Amino acid sequence: MRPQTIGRVLGIGVRVAGRFVGQQLAGPAPSGGSASRAQAAQPSAPVADTRATAQRAGRAATQTGRSVSKGVGGFLRPFRRVGGILWLEVTGVFFLLPVIVFGPNLWRYRASWLLGPDHRTFIVSAIIVMVFLYLGVSSFWRAQRR
Fold first, then answer.
1. Distance separating alpha carbons of residues 118 and 140, to the nearest angstrom
2. The whole model's pTM is what?
3. Strand, helix or coil at 43?
4. CA distances from residue 56 to 52, 61, 73 in whole angstroms, order as listed
5. Nearest to 135, CA basis, from 98, 85, 109, 84
6. Helical spans, DSSP H, in 1-118
7. CA–CA separation, 110 vs 129, rounded Å?
8. Cα Rg for the chain, rounded, in angstroms?
9. Is the separation of the CB atoms in 38 and 27 below 8 Å?
10. Along the 146 residues of the chain, how does pLDDT read in single tens digits?
């Protein structure tokens, strides 16, 4: 059987089963008499049992989810320090890329640093280089301290 066919059959089966369970939980359709209205107002024993079972299943699923998350957290705890150091180093590299890009502009426009025609370009390049150099170096420094 092809995977598309298996998926289609399972999807249709799940929908039909869901409809069937929904109808069973809703109970029989009222016929319009006063006895059926009173019966519809009071939940039947199977519906109450089903609700209790569903609540217990929900609690069990919640507990299982908590246990799984604690287990995964315990497994990943040793990798958290290494992951943090790696994150800081990668971030530092990306912060140093603008320094590499704008550094040549600083050298190229160094002659007009005070009053030249490219004064504004030099100042903007200097600010960008200083900010990103600080961020890159501090990121590597924090990684080294860990």
1. 33
2. 0.49
3. coil
4. 6, 9, 26
5. 98
6. 3-26, 34-41, 45-108
7. 14
8. 34
9. no
10. 565 666 666 677 777 777 777 777 776 655 555 555 555 555 555 666 787 788 888 888 888 888 888 888 888 888 888 899 999 999 999 999 999 999 988 888 887 777 778 888 888 899 999 999 999 999 999 999 98
Half-sphere exposure of 51 (CA within 13 A, CB side): 7
Q: Which tokens go with 93?
A: 């590299």
* Token pair for 11: 């999807």
Which two structure tokens, joined as six digits, stand for 75?
């497994």
- CA atoms of 139 and 142, how far apart (whole Å): 5
Do 140 and 95 meet the contact criterion of CB atoms below 8 Å apart? no
